[in-house]
Amino acid sequence: MVERVDNGTEVLLALIKVISDRCASRESAMLPTMHRAARHFHKTHRFNGSLCKQGLARNSSQFPACTRHETLPVTPTVPRIVPHLAAPDLSCAQLLGHVRDVSQRLQHNGMLKISLGFSDNNSQYLQQLIRSLHQHHGHQLPITHSATCGWFWDVRPSTTDFQTANHRARSETMEEFPWHTDCSYEDLPPRYFALQVLQHDRYGGGTLSVMNVERLSEQLSPTTRASLMRPEYRITIPAEFIKEPTKRHILGSLLLADEQGRSSMMRFREDLLTPLTERASRALDELKHALQHVEAQLHSTVHLTAADLPERSVILIDNRRWLHARNDVKDPGRHLRRVRWDAIPFPGVLN
Question: Where in this chain does the record put each TauD/TfdA-like domain (predicted)?
């Protein structure tokens, strides 16, 4: 059971127990009483899209097994929240109900936070969860990061010990990382990525920001959206992520419409892009302006600080529906672990 509940919560729990005991013989007659009790509790103990401020502690170990609740309100102009699940122990990664919740939240929201109630320095939870998503919900297994690095990549500052020999990835620095999607240079970019927090930034840096692509695209002109959907960009593969020595770039588009015709999916990392036509160049300029525009960011962006994503947090993100960025890292001990999976075609790619 949940610990640290207030008096109002205790009253409601006691009332529900009494009602439940009687419902076996008088179920239909007691339903109105249950409804009135629920309405009264809702009025006096509001959740407001976050953890119940009247009693539920933030520590995930205090939640019952594999529970879900809502938290992390987005900016006031974005009427949505980041769903939040608790995984008190490793077995949650293989429980069908928990795995189904993860799949549904990713499909609906494109983003999900999970709080682990146990130490997991080897990322066993993520390994088992992704295998379960593969087995039960059709997700493709993770892609390798490079020719020498497998499923997992350690996102932490390093000056000498690089994960790809002689090449330092941007994620291995303490510098800010502007708006991008992961693996924009892949023929089949992964649909999802996850970051497990092994050590959050203890000095206030390394804030993860995410921007909704559909809302961003609403800031663009129809002409620009159409241009971004044409395969008129050369996308360079970073040296640290080259898998085939003879393949150094791909040709492709940057924006993609969903089944409803909404411009809701993108591949983007500015420093890797070369527009191949004048219209492609103009469209890229407008996109960069929109990314820097304050109104566009207020309209579509949420910022997740170390307080939102402390140690033992996992954030899962739809890599096509959300751009992400981070500010500069202040803690040299900051350590995240990344995995990318469900690589599927991004239409508009020319080999």
Answer: 155-339
The verdict on residue 9 lying in a domain is no
- What is the β-pairing status of strands 152-155 and 322-326? unpaired
Token pair of 253, please? 């588009």
| Model confidence band, residue 45 (pLDDT cutoffs 50, 70, 90) | very low
For the chain, what is the domain count?
A: 1
User: pLDDT band at residue 240, thresholds of 50, 70 and 90?
Assistant: confident
Within a domain: residue 74?
Answer: no
Q: What token pair was written down for 3?
A: 């610990």
φ/ψ (deg, to 5) at 294: -60, -45
| Overall size of the chain counted in residues | 351
Residues paired with residue 233 on neighbouring β-strands, in sequence order: 252, 275
Number of Cβ atoms within 10 Å of the Cβ of 131:
17
- Count other C-beta atoms under 10 Å from residue 242's C-beta: 16
Angle between helices 96-109 and 124-137 (to 10 degrees): 80
Sign of the Cα torsion 316, 207, 76, 223 reads: negative
Residue 136 tokens read as: 């039960």
